[in-house]
Amino acid sequence: MAILTASGRAALAAAIKQQTLHLALGEGDPVWDTTRAVSTAFDADDLIALGFTYLEEVRVTSLDESTTYTRDVDYSVDAREGMIRRLSGSAIPEQGDVTVHFKVGHPPEPIDRTALLREVGRRVVDEVHFVAVDAQGEIVVPTGRYRLSTTPTNHLFIRVRFDFEDAATSTIREQGLFVGTQTDPSLPPGQKYFVPSQVVEPGILLLLQHSVPIVRQPSTRETFEFVVTF
């Protein structure tokens, strides 16, 4: 059986490193991170379908909120599917009315996505470096610690600094690393940040990341750092 060797992965990383990369910012789905309260009754099968998925911080109360029911005693939660089930012996009356309080979370990043949801702009990546895994490394990202490497590896460290006015006042919930972006050739030379109308060909989405909401402000800069592993 053929395998992709470590040196082959490093060669892929080296090929990507030679290209111009862009980090795009997207607003994602506006429903993400919102807090909801749905008042309804359990159906004949002791279920409530909330119409939202990937729930967080679920709490079920009586309609007047005078009673808070106990999770896994009075009801169970299928957070991924957005389903509440009344349990046997529950203090909740059969087909009783309740209020379900919850926060809508982010779904996992889908592997088949090719674009961001509601992209607001993208910027040319400032730095791309080979790095190697190192428990004492000076580079710390959510995936671990790394050190800079002078020889090609299968890990690329990416750093992008957005300027004050880039995507100012937007709420950012997604970041995407693109390779092969083509921008309007009539734009001024040296322009680094591009809104969607200035992008002729978005290129290939290499990496997708969901994040907590980042509210951009014209008084601040944002720096994004991560490691892409091939």
UniProtKB/TrEMBL annotation:
<dbReference type="Pfam" id="PF25691">
    <property type="entry name" value="BW3TFN"/>
</dbReference>
<dbReference type="InterPro" id="IPR058040">
    <property type="entry name" value="BW3TFN"/>
</dbReference>
<protein>
    <submittedName>
        <fullName>Uncharacterized protein</fullName>
    </submittedName>
</protein>
